[in-house]
Every structure is written in structure tokens, then in C-alpha cells.
Amino acid sequence: MGSDLLPNSTSEVVDETDQVIKHKSNKDELDAGALFVLKSRGSWLHCGYHLTTSIVAPALLSLPFAFTMLSWVAGVFCLIIGASVTFYAYNLLSLVLEHHAELGQRQLRFRDMARDILGPRWDLYYVGPLQLSLCYAAVVACILIAGQSLKFIYLLLSPNDTMKLYQFIVIAGVLMLALAQIPSFHSLRHINLVSLVLCLAYSACAVAGSIYVGKSHKAPVTDYSVNEDGANRMFGVYNAISIIATTYGNGIIPEIQATIAPPVKGKMFKGLCLCYTIVIATFFSVTISGYWAFGNQAAGTVLSNFIVDGKPLVPKWLLLITNVFTLLQGSAVGLVYLQLTNEVLERKLADAKCKQFSFRNVIPRLISRSLSVALATTIAAMFPFFGDINAVIGAFGCIPLDFVLPMIFYNVTFKPSKDTFTFWVNIFIAVVFTILGVLGAIAAVRQIVIDAKIYSLFANV
């Protein structure tokens, strides 16, 4: 299959100097969003940092909960399939992007790919709105997670206080508002290196906590059977698949590859190898240890299982540092996904003919980014049950962008023969995940309807 992935048209040797010249000759034609936010200055290592932050996020702490609806065999199978298919899909996207870059038409955005490969309507009416909604929802979710972590830390230190969740969400939003002024995606490279270390740190803490509880006399009675049956079990399986798919989701592969300095050939693959080393180390260790320790009692986030009736089952310091790591890394993840909104705002409001830090461009940037984060913070505070809404957005967004469109882009761009294995693998993956996306969306909407009776604005959950 590997030989099928490299068509004859990409096997020609292209002089690196020519590529740089082509890139520079197109620079004057770039809009302000591409020129200022998606600066092409990074190395493959920086790309790896961006990729890791965009995929390895606090959402991985919910993977043991997904196993409660799948059990061991199906759960491990879905985890492996999720890793394999996304790694394969992201490599396909990278090959398509490299192919167009070699032709002198470097695509910097997912929307550019949709427009050039499938036509302008796909950009305007499908991929553009879908990607923007997905990334902005991720920003809202990250602010919410940061607020929840802040509240948890505060209650550990001051258990009798009466501060509400929305107050902590506002504090987290203020932190995000300050960080949102960082000018470009490339500027986040050092923050995302720290983020990589942090995700390893809180994953190690979650694993250590699960093993500690599982081995202690306080360990709950573990039952690995699925509680639900009938229709509830069926929809639970669809929900679990959506959770796993969303956790592996990215949705901004082209924008991350756009940060790489030309020539881009081969650099994305190295970045993906770095990223998926971290993915496998964190996803599998947290999921297996969490489900082993708590079985079908695993909560929506495994950290919730470390406290029973207000009393911690693990040392208090472990809970404290785990939530500090989660808070900080969640903020970094939010910054990565905020770049898409920043790029759109910059493209509309900034002037590419003026300098990036000129008065003409700084003031609109400051105002627009501040309003963007303020709106996301308000949504997070109003809807602290955003996880249910995010599941819908994930089913509609992550699965099409990460599991379906890469296969379509590759087949349309390179037109592999119908006699090749690659062609049919791509078709099979696209069809299967389209069906799973629809079923996952139905299951997520159904869960919102079920939970609607407990919803309230600005709830202190």
C-alpha cells in the first residue's frame, strides 16, 4: 500500500531553491490572514509541537468513560482504529498539500483545499463553516475545562468557599484573552513545547492515580460489563465512537502544515511521528489504567473517580498538580484552535499592505480577538454542560474533516487506479466513517434531549 501512496507526479525531484522562489513570488498575493497568522517559518519539530497540542488534549481523560459503553475488546479495537486511520488520513492530507506546493500552488488552509480540489461551493457552504464551528467549539470547551480545573483547585485549597463555576470560567477566559494577543501560529511553538510536556505530566498523574486507587483497599468493586441494554446500549456505542473520534480529531492539519518553512516535503511526516508517539503513550496508558481501576463506573473524566463523597482516594497533592497541569495545557490547546478564528478575523480586518504591528493592524486585532474570546467565555459560562453540545459538533465536524475528506481529497487529486488497494481502502474508510458520523450525531442529539431536563444557564456543576 505504501507504494500506491506516492504517485508518479510527486516522484519528480523539485529543486528546493525553486520552491522557495515560488513561495516568495506568491507572498505579495497572500491575504493578511495567511501573511500574519499562518507564517511559514517553522521546522518539522515545531510542527510536531503544534500537532501534539491539537490532538493530545484534556479530552483524553474521558476515554475510560468511552470504554464503559464498549468494554475491553471493542474499546481497544476502536482506540487502535482511531489512531491508525487518523495517522493514515493526516499523511494523505500532507501528500496532497505537498503535491500542490510542488506545483507552485501551496494551499495554506483546509478551505483552500476544498476550493481547489472540490470547487468553491465546498469551501463556502461546507468545509469553511464546519471547520470554523468545530475550532470555535474547541475554544469554548477549553475555556470551560480550564474553569472547571480552577474551581477544583480552589475547592481543594478552600473546601467551604461558595464561588460559582461561572466565576472561574471568567478567570480562565481572562487568561485566554491575554494569550490570544500572541500574533501568529508560529509564535506558539515554545508554548506548545511546554504543552507537550504538560500533557505527558497529567497523563502520568492520571495513570499513577488509577493504579494507586486500583491497588488500595479503597478500590471500588470493578465490573467490566456494559450496564445498558437494548436501544440505550446501541446509542451508547455510537456515543463512545464519537468520543474516541473527537479525541483523535484535529481539523486544522493544513493550517499546521502552513506554518512549516518551504520546502515542506517530508517535514509533516516527521511531525506526525513525533505527535503519534505522544498520542500512543498517553491515550492507551490513561484509557487502560482508568478502565482497569474503575470498570463501568468510570466517570466522564477519570479525575472525577479520584474523589468519592467529597473525599479524595489519592493524595491531595496529586489531585492538585494534575489539575494545574490540565488547566495550563487546556489553555494551550484553546490557543491552537483559536488560530483559525484569528486567521479569519485578520483576513477580514487587517491590511496586508501595512506592517503586521502597525497601528492600522494592531487595533483591529486587539479588539476582534478580545471580542472573540469574550464571546467564547460567555458561552462556556452559560452552558457548562457544553460536553453534550460538543459531542454533536464533534460528530458533524471531526469525523468528516478527519476521517472522510482526506480520503476524498487524495483520490480526487491523484486519481489512483480502481485496481489499486489504496483506492478501495480510501473509499471504504470514507463510507464507513460517514455512516458512523451520522449515527454518532443522532446519538449525541438524543443525549441532549435526555439531559435537557437538568440544563440551566450558568449552572454551578
From TrEMBL:
The chain crosses the membrane at residues 73-97, 124-146, 166-186, 193-214, 234-253, 273-294, 314-338, 366-386, 392-412, 424-445. Pfam families: Aa_trans. Signal peptide: none annotated. One of its GO terms (cellular component) is membrane. Its main location: membrane. It is found in: Membrane. Keywords: Amino-acid transport, Membrane, Transmembrane, Transmembrane helix, Transport. Residues 41-448 form the Amino acid transporter transmembrane domain. GO terms for biological process: amino acid transport. It comes from the Eukaryota. This is Amino acid transporter transmembrane domain-containing protein.
